[in-house]
Amino acid sequence: MTYPIISVKNLYHTYQSGPLQKAALVDITMEIERGSCSAIIGVTGSGKSTLVQHFNGLLRPTSGALVVDGVNVKAKGGDLKTLRQRVGILFQFPESQLFGHTVYADVAFGPRRLNLSKSEVRTLVLHALDAVGLPPRQFAQRSPFELSGGQRRRVALAGILAMSPKILILDEPTTGLDADGRAEFYQYILHVQQKDAVTVILVSHDMSEVALLADQLFVLHNGHLVAQGSPRAIFTQDTMLHEWGLIEPPLSELLLLLRKQGLAIPERVFTLDEALSVLQELRTIQHERNNV
Amino acid sequence: MFKNISLGIYYPGNSLLHRLQARTKLLLLAWFTVYIVIANNFIWHFAPYIVLIIFSFIGIVSSGISLPHVWRRMRLLLLLMLLGAIPTLFFTTEGTVRPVYTLGPFPVSFAQLRWAIVIYGMLLTIYIALLFLPIPALKNISHHLWLNRMKIPLIVITLAIIVLLWLTHNISPTTTFLVGPFVITDLGVWSFLSISTVFIVLYIFSLLLMMTTSPIALVEGLTMLLTPLRLLKLPVDDFALMTLIALRFIPTLIDEVEQLLKAQTARGADYAHGTIRERSQSLLALLIPLLHGVLRRASDLATALESRGYEVGSQQTRLHEKRLGALDYSVVAAVTIITIGSFFV
């Protein structure tokens, strides 16, 4: 029996700025499965980043219950140090947070704070660098500032992974990367999720990225959780998606248009391979009809 | 967490003072300063001070800012100013002086002094007992901020008293000395009144200027007033641009610091706990990326400016020309006539 690694119940968060109050999250109730890859999607200002910052205690709920891997995040107190070690969070443009004079020193910043021996820190750092495809032999002693954008971002990811987190939160991890950089980054994320059994939570508004990686989607709109389910289920609700300010991934959109033109494409079709086989099938059917 | 830092003290609004041009307000402030310097030369001539007080009231009313807001920003300075001005009441002795009131002299004997020290010692013992006795109710009191803040002054006072006792221990307790006499002179009363009025009024005027003018309008106004300095080949426009950029980027930098704080906290940085070494490492992890970001931003901005044809040392034109209106002229005229008139009353 697996119990959810994150469970949120009736969570509210209100920003206080002077006399003005702004409700950022309203009555959020959700559960995230251990070992899954979930995505939280929504337009800018929908509260995605606010929500995930609760998961490692950077923000505290105004009211409601939040349990992350057995640690209770309350309005006050609580064991945040353990929580922050278990929950790694990679912010937008993480390469701007690098500061070490070598890649090794930068990645080792987190582990050094965990009261580990030198050799343990070393093992963690080397493992993390390997996991993001930066061979330590080649990269450990270089300055992070002389690397390319994609490599620096992977150094930042290694800095989080070196803390051996159980949950990895990625806040729009691929914005500003080129197509190759993106594909490579996804590959390492999936690798970490499958090999180290890390629960991945992705915050994004890139729908093709979400469709590719996530197996569970949560849609936020104006601080409300308006939908949750598998990407297949969510991306067929095109009218609702548009209402929330989102658009389905290009492939889903294309299939939707074809369906409207009268092509019999079943709703379960979701990936490029599936679409290809369905279209080929349709073509053979058409050929046969023409030949008859 | 940094969102509550207010930049300047500008209160948006559309009152009479808000509608005045920034340079008009700056000019008026400068004129009032000159006016005060001139008025200071006429002893016992109250008219200019009454005019100043009336103007400051008119200013507060026409700024549309509620009195409690102004008062909240004034009260601390008012207290400091009064404390500062009280000595002038006693120690103004130059010129023709007529004593108004004499305080003292008070004879004080060393026996009395030592009694005072004994009482102080008893109070100190009670205070230390409060800190160390394991009574929860008392512990709560001792954690109050003001009690904590008292610690260092108390140590200084106690040390001073011990030194004093050591220096005076062989003087007989019956020896007395005189404290005072304190003489209040008529000139002292006049300096006290005029100096406090000038301080309060100037502070109110500057406060009103800052509260009714947005920082950017203020810099623009200042630049326009400084334009004659161009003739001396001083880089007025570059200075203005520099100041505007600095003002513009403060919120951006605050955002960046906030983001970095969160990112490094998530990686285990801790700014409040741990050894000094750990804390300074955490601080370094914040400062290096911040500096790096600032330099990158500066170089981007320089490129953007140059690509739009900015040249160092050239004269810029403004997108929104602001002309002085009838309001500005009439206010300046009224203030000038009334202030100059007050000298002849």
Task: Write the SSE topology.
The complex is a heterodimer of chains A (292) and B (345).
Chain A: E1 6-17, E2 20-32, E3 37-41, H1 48-55, E4 63-68, E5 71-72, H2 80-86, E6 87-90, H3 103-112, H4 118-131, H5 136-139, H6 149-161, E7 167-171, H7 179-195, E8 199-204, H8 207-213, E9 216-221, E10 224-229, H9 231-234, H10 238-243, H11 250-260, H12 272-291
Helix pairs in contact in A: 3-4, 3-6, 4-6
Chain B: H1 16-19, H2 22-39, H3 47-63, H4 67-91, E1 99-103, E2 106-109, H5 110-132, H6 136-142, H7 145-167, E3 176-179, E4 182-185, H8 186-212, H9 215-226, H10 236-266, H11 276-307, H12 326-343
**How does CATH name the architecture of the largest domain in chain A?**
3-Layer(aba) Sandwich
Mean pLDDT, all residues of chain B:
81
Element order, helices and strands of chain B? HHHHEEHHHEEHHHHH
Helix and strand content put the structural class of chain B at mainly alpha
User: How are strands sequenced across the largest beta sheet of chain A?
Assistant: 6-7-8-3-9-10
Q: For this structure, what is the CATH class of the largest domain in chain A?
A: Alpha Beta
Number of helices of chain B: 12
Number of strands of chain B: 4
Protein described:
The complex is a heterodimer of chains A (292) and B (345). Chain A is of the alpha/beta class and 292 residues long. Chain A has helices spanning 48-55, 80-86, 103-112, 118-131, 136-139, 149-161, 179-195, 207-213, 231-234, 238-243, 250-260, 272-291; strands at residues 6-17, 20-32, 37-41, 63-68, 71-72, 87-90, 167-171, 199-204, 216-221, 224-229. In chain A, α3 (103-112) runs parallel beside α6 (149-161) and α4 crosses α6. By secondary structure, chain B is mainly alpha-helical. Chain B folds into 3 domains: 1-103 and 183-214 and 324-345, no CATH class; 106-179, no CATH class; 215-319, no CATH class. Chain B has helices at residues 16-19, 22-39, 47-63, 67-91, 110-132, 136-142, 145-167, 186-212, 215-226, 236-266, 276-307, 326-343, and strands at 99-103, 106-109, 176-179, 182-185. The longest helix of chain B has 32 residues, at 276-307. Mean pLDDT of chain B is 81; it is low at 1-5. At the A-B interface, α2 of A face α10 and α11 of B.
